[in-house]
Amino acid sequence: MLTRTEMNAATVEILWTRLVSLVDEAATTLVRTSFSHVVRDAHDYAVVLLDRQAQLVAQSTQSIPSFICTLPATARHIIDRFPADTMQPGDVYVTNDPWMGTGHLPDINIIRPIFHGGDLIGFSASVAHSPDIGGRIRSPGIRELYEEGLRLPPLRLMQAGERDEAIFAILEANVRISEQVLGDLYAQIAANEMLGQRLAELIDDTGLRFNDFAADIQDRTEQAMDAAIRAVPEGRYSYTVEVDGFGDPVVIACTLTIADGRIEVDYTGSSPQMDRAINVVPTYTRAYTCYALKCILSPNVPNNEGSFRSIHVGAPEGSILNPRFPAPVGARAMTGHLLPPAIMGALADVIPDRVQAAPGSPLWSCHLTGRDKGKDYAFFFFLNGGQGATSAKDGYPAVSFPSNLGNTPIEVLEANAPVRVTQRALRRGSGGDGAFRGGDGQITEIEILADSPVTVSFMANRLEIPAQGLNGGGAGQPGAVLLNGAPYDPREISLIQPGDTLTLMTPGGGGFGAVAS
């Protein structure tokens, strides 16, 4: 058996690459067996491998950034409810509780213990955004969590390989498109099972002591992150980001304190929690904080638990970044996606070559539900604004950041909802001016073909307050939502009629640096 002292750099690299390949193979299983476009086309999922203490060891290459930090926390909540010594091969656990998971109900988390030689050695974990979770369709205007759909506390979904039929029946009875929801759930279960099998095969093939190896790469990564933090001048750095709210703007106040190889991130001064669904639970707040700092400081070292040990995040209880239950959280990305721009703004003066201006996000989405030709449908699609510029190049147009979701293809949209896409184009000139320009947004126009009224909601922001530039760069253009050519308020759930036309114009990213005179 390989011991920790036998792992030189070459051995670590070879085994590490094999581990990532295992997780990627499991992720491919999830994508190829999924039923919904959300996983298959938008790639709104993640698969991770955890050690015995439910600490991150490896992630799938195609993963939503926030999920990397949340899944280990979810697994630890599962262990709190179902102690490790009570688990057995074939067990599968599930939850979508926002405070234990990714921050909103549509994301279903699946945790599976991995056994080898009769011993629990780790966990495979996955999360996928379900195409529906019941309740009202997702909207920033929702007033409390109970409106947002079915909430699953930590549950044992399968015991020793046998399904708990009651859980499956409850889930099927509470969602609009059960075949897609359950199909994606089975795909997650298959992906988790495959990852466990492949890890066991790797151990048998190499003699790897998995938890020793996990501790080794986590320690190495922590040392690399510590060195990256120490390369930044110590000090206290602050920045504030604002975005459209319900009346008053939403404010994210961010203060970073860098000292002795550690970073403290404090969000005191941010907006209080709201009775609208744009609140962000602490796991999601930490996730996008860690992601931003990882991108800035140590982008080339693969993610694992060691990446984040030197980062400490706090937000006052009762604030929009640490709300009290049962605050609504369904549209939490509309606030959470502001955290990387806030952190980059705080560090813009001290390390300007590593940050970028604010993107034309938060990510946009449009949700459509109804009945057409006697059949129920529920569908949503994503739209991306322009990325912010950097000190070295223009921002990319219509690319998601800080998430990495894909723009939903026209063919997928028209095949899954009763609509016709009449225009999709870049929104030329919508990026902010500067030495380097912000990325352009996009224009998507759809015609409603349904034979009955359609319930519609949006996650759409920066209609009033644009994405700001950095270091003298100009702001991007705000976005716009039009119904039949007239301005339309996207913040509440509403009905639109057959034959109506929706025009969605996503914001441009901020520019970087002043234009030379």
Give a brief description.
This is Hydantoinase B/oxoprolinase family protein. The protein has 517 residues and is of the alpha+beta class.
Question: What can you see in these coordinates?
Answer:
The chain has 517 residues and is α+β, with helices and mostly antiparallel strands. The chain has three domains: 4-221, no CATH class; 235-354; 356-517, no CATH class. The chain has helices at residues 9-33, 37-40, 65-81, 165-173, 178-206, 210-230, 282-297, 333-336, 339-347, 410-416, and strands at residues 45-50, 56-59, 92-95, 107-116, 119-129, 155-159, 162-163, 235-243, 250-259, 262-266, 311-314, 364-372, 375-383, 419-427, 441-448, 454-459, 480-483, 486-487, 494-496, 501-505. A hairpin with a 6-residue loop joins strand 8 (235-243) and strand 9. The longest helix is centred in the middle third of the chain and has 29 residues, at 178-206.
